[in-house]
Amino acid sequence: MPEVHFIGELQGASGFPASELFCKYKFVLDDDNWELLEGVMEGQTQVDNPQESDESVWAHPIDVHLKASSIKGWPKINVQVWHQDRFGRNELYGYGFCHLPTAPGQFDLEIVTWRPEGSLLEELKAYFLGGVPHLRNDNLVVQGGDRYRLKTVPMGKVFLQIGVILKDFAKYGVHW
Known about the structure:
Number of helices: 1
Distance between the termini: 16 Å
Oligomer: single chain
Number of strands: 9
Strand content: over 45%
Helix content: under 10%
């Protein structure tokens, strides 16, 4: 079976309204065609509190080795950026995702994030008390369809550096 290995790191983020950020991530793929051989499919970075810049640095390693029976459902990475205040409360700052590269090599990717826009009352409450609207179903982020009907607010960017190693794709008749 063809295999793909994703090795890299969630480098950090910038452009968010505040610092003290951390990121939850999850690889999303078609379970019928893909199987995890080694690695961790989801995780969370540490909270970074930059003192002199608005860019958070996580340098969180990613190492996932997968086996494919088809290229259908090629892996994507789904991210959620959270803010932790000085009292330890966590507030969602943004959702984002990107398709992982299908070619071998080293790639620097920027994942643009957004959050749902609430009603005027919800936005006022979020401004004064915190707590922005969340999605009921996080799968909406990586599945097209209904996502395009949402009203959203743009947030910052997450930086991902990823290396892609392909094995046995040509042997099984998959040519790029």
